Amino acid sequence: MQRLVLALYSLALWLAQPLLLRKLRRRARTEPGYAQAVPERFGRYPGPPAMDGQGGPLVWIHAVSLGETRAAAILLQELRAQLPGMRLLLTHGTATGRAEGEKLLHSGDLQVWQPWDTPGAVRRFLRRFRPAIGILMETEIWPNLVAGCRAQQVPLVLANARLNEKSRAGARRLAWLSRPAYAGLAAVWAQTEEDAVRLRDVGAPVAGVFGNLKFDVVPSPEQQARGRAWREACRRPVVLLASTREGEEAMWLEVLRQKWPPAPVDKTQTAIKNEVNAAVQWLLVPRHPQRFDEVQRLCEAAGLRVSRRSQWDHGPQQADVWLGDSLGEMPLYYGMAHVALLGGSFAPLGGQNLIEAAACGCPLVMGPHTFNFDQAARLAIAAGAAERVADMAAGVAAATALAQDGPRHAERAGRCQAFTQAHRGAAHATALAVQQQLNRALRQSGGPSS
Predict the structure, then answer these.
(1) Would the pLDDT of 95 be above 50?
(2) What's the CATH number for 221-421?
(3) Is residue 64 within 8 Å of 100, Cβ to Cβ?
(4) What is the pTM of this model?
(5) Which of 40, 68, 248, 329 is catalytic?
């Protein structure tokens, strides 16, 4: 029965390949990275295969997108320390993840797209690279990938694993496909006890609860220092809308509009500008780069002047709204901000990573939707590093009040850094567990263990 289910799933994916190609072409119009090395998606690679036996073991890490790649960077630092001479094979599913991953490569490392989950693509990928171990980051489980690794005797683990209630319900509905995939993993290391319970419920072999790797992040001191210097040069407190998702900027603009009765467009726009100029300096950083232009147009349609980070030489230009249109500079933006409104939490999208903000000493105001980071959100609130509000209107009011209250802001900023410091250690524990899995696999294959 299991073979039949997997065969039907594989046939459906094989038939869907033209749709995948069309989707990649469409995405490439706004993000050219999606047009890069498309044959890799199907397990086809140019040139001769990499030679086995060169250097240390080839450790494969799959980090689907930007957030997972940043978590992988934290783990990778520990892995390189514990496995000197290791080579890295880094795979991704999104253009932003791949661009970020390029920064992690050393001489001898490799980077390709994750293979499309058909038996042929997976088989070609594994035969080409022959990794000694595979590490999936956080949530990425693919049935043929798991089955292929088992057939090729490649231990495949899930690190920094999380599973929210919605995803568990989906996995249970598709248990005929998902349960063998979870059960086929060599080990799973969960972020929280709650995640561990949900993962075990869908068949995953949970071998430990190590916490969230993102607590071990060390944000760039240089970026933070530059951001704080720019903040000090501003005459008003700075409030950041961090990693906003589609619809949230419109919510924010609507909150400003609702402060005045209906009026002609030009009067409403003037009122919004006066409020922006009088209260705080707003800084908007959309989550996805393809939305930078869209967000600028939204703000300008409301009569706000926008200054983009890409246009700054020596600091922000005078404007109603600063638009963070760069990648890899969140420590800079958190350094600039007195308070941050957490993107993805005001629309029902589950929230974005709140740990990096806290590590930068930036207090957070969160909306009601943080199910992707449920325990981290609850811990941050308990530690006084964050507060939760019911909607965007309450968020704007809370963030503005905190940014304008110097003593309360300083106290919250200190709580942020104490909060992140108290939860460090996941990277070291995960790297040790990876080393143990790798040594076991090398012993079984007759290769040298580290």
Answers:
(1) yes
(2) 3.40.50.2000
(3) no
(4) 0.81
(5) 68
